[in-house]
Amino acid sequence: MIQGHILHINLSSQTSETIEKPDLFEKFIGGVGVASKLLLDNCPPKTPYEDAPIIFATGPLNMFYPCCAKTVALFKSPLTGNLGESYAGGKLSMAMRLAGHDAIMITGKLDTPYYLLIQNDTVEFRDAHALWGLSTRATGRILKEKSPGEGRRSILRIGVAGENQVRYAMVVADTVRHFGRLGLGCVMGSKKLKGIVITGTKNPKVSSIKEYRTEYKKIHDLVLNTNLMDKYDILGTPMNVLPLNEIQALPTRNFSSFHFEGADGISGERFAEEVLVGKSSCVPCPIGCIHIAQLRVQFDPEHHDYGTIYVTYDYELIFAFGSNLGIGAMDDVLQLIERADSRGLDAMSAGVVLGWITEAYNKGILTTKQLGGLNPRWGDVGVYLSILDNITDASNEFYNVAGQGVQALAERYGGEDFAVHFEGNEASGYHTGPANIVGHLVGIRHSHLDNAGYSIDQKSLARPMTNEKIGKMLAEEDTWRTVLNSLVICLFARPVFTPDVVLSSLKALGEERTSDELKKIGEEVFHLRMRFKTQEGFSLDNLTPPVRLLEKLSPHGQVDKTSIEEIISSWRRTHDL
Predict the structure, then answer these.
(1) If 0-12 CB within 10 Å is exposed, 13-18 middle and 19+ buried, where does residue 367 land?
(2) Ordered DSSP codes for 535-548
(3) Other beta carbons less than 10 A from residue 516's beta carbon
(4) Domain holding 36: CATH number?
(5) Do 181 and 421 touch, CB atoms closer than 8 A?
(6) 163 lies in a domain?
(7) Is residue 471 one of the residues assigned to a domain?
(8) Residue 149 Rama label (left phi>0; alpha psi -120 to 50; beta)
(9) H and E: helices and strands count for the chain
């Protein structure tokens, strides 16, 4: 069970200490709740992102139950300038638990490149000069060779994008998982922190083995012997491609249309039939939601040497590097996913940036000279690969701006009317209607994962809802997801972890809570994060929806500003903001 152990690592002094804060976990459960309080307490207003702390936190259910494998990272986002919040699966929450740490807080910064080796209570600072400049793949291989604890170990690392301060650089966790959004890789790079290896030998115990086993079996049966999670095990999230395309909600060619003529070629069904070679799971999860494709690549054109690499894929990556760029071939999409992954770029932001660049070039806003001799056209994967490399390397002034996101590009070069972002965070792959737009605008991360507005839109196609109802549903989902993210469970498993199941799973571990208590904690933690955003300059009174999403028809027709304002008003009343 959670003990309230926080490992504080000071990079500037190269020291570490364990802080005991059981009261913090008692009050906020764990995960995003504890991390939010730590961030507020340790990051004064307007602190530069490179000087702000990075906080990793787990929850009481991590490692004990199926689908409870996520770890949350909180930091100051270099992309939006306010809250950075990201989640990764893999082995990290297990490794932290086995090392005895419920949270890890990293402060300060290094003068030269290092990586951290955390073994139980010991923290080693290891020279990373030889790793600086290497891809995430190469770095991962080397750290595996140099680090103990195979099977009980988690490895985080950044690529060149993080080293070069691309604002949407991400962190690879255990090869197939990522802290993808809002720029954690950029923050680690600014601190000269190339990677983190965590391993432990401790054995967490439960208060009642019998009660725990009964509860574990119940949850395991819900996961495997019902259809609650079939979507994620069979086709995974790529099954969204064709349904969204059918209702004309699949962003295509930089959100200029929402029906892609090449959708069949990049559908979840086509991926599964032709390139899927395996599935993987986080620890401890029996669902294979991590879908892995085989990509055949030519390493030496002169000698016709080919090799095979394995690339993970999901809906958001297929949207970003597929329909959004006018690409309808699976191998082309996989090439772009692999390049972004190895270079350490958030694929979603990178895909939206590529879409903006292509449209800006086609409209004469950008020149071939600015693009370093490149001529981007929809569907041209070769040019897109080169642009990703140029952004990663910050090869000229234009690509340095491109590494700051579409908001920065539009502010510098124009084209604001087709820069699709929410408060600086590039849009995800949905244009389903007003709930999705408002959900992104007001969401803590400006993400589809904050409150699933896209799902509310789809439900209201069959049963229309008032704007008042939509706003209330968004707010209620904000609160409940905050609870789930404090536990920290995989949101794919939210149909399993209903309030009743959450309460019984906590009880089996010796932690008594009530439904009212969970709701109160969820709302309080939501307000903690909103307080941090506000202190960094975010304002609910100055929200600006992307012009393009107001211009284009959604499945609900054209979304008007009045509807958006009414939904936001309802949302604010429900949250008492």
Answers:
(1) exposed
(2) HTT--GGG----HH
(3) 8
(4) 3.60.9.10
(5) no
(6) yes
(7) yes
(8) left
(9) 23, 17
Give the whole-angstrom CA distance, residue 391 versus residue 384.
Answer: 10
Q: Is the predicted pLDDT of residue 276 greater than 70, yes or no?
A: yes
Domain identity same for 189 and 307: no
- Please say whether the beta carbons of 36 and 523 come within 8 A: no
Write the pLDDT tens digit of every residue in 213-270: 999 999 999 999 999 999 898 999 999 999 999 999 999 999 999 999 999 999 999 9
Checking if the pLDDT of 39 tops 80, the result is: yes
Q: Do 283 and 403 fall into the same domain? A: yes
The pair of three-digit structure tokens given for residue 211, joined into one six-digit string: 């009660």
- Encoded amino acid at 186, one letter: C
Bin 550: left if φ > 0, else alpha if -120 < ψ < 50, else beta: alpha
Q: Is the pLDDT of residue 303 over 70?
A: no
The tens digit of pLDDT for each residue in 326-376 reads 999 999 999 999 999 999 999 999 999 999 999 999 999 999 999 999 999
382 lies in the same domain as 488: no
Cα–Cα dist 318/348, whole Å: 9
Tokens 């000229």 locate to: 396
Q: Where are the alpha helices (DSSP H) in 396-487?
A: 397-402, 406-413, 434-442, 453-462, 467-487
Spatial separation of the C-alpha atoms in residues 130 and 133, rounded to whole Å: 8
216 φ, ψ (degrees, to nearest 5): -60, -45
Residue 519, domain member (yes or no)? yes
Neighbours of 437 (CB within 10 A): 28
Kindly provide the b/e burial profile for residues 193-207, where b requires at least 16 CB atoms within 10 angstroms of the residue's own CB: bbbbbbbbeeebebe
CB distance 544 to 437 below 8 Å: no
Domain that holds residue 270: 229-414
Residue 35 lies in a domain: yes
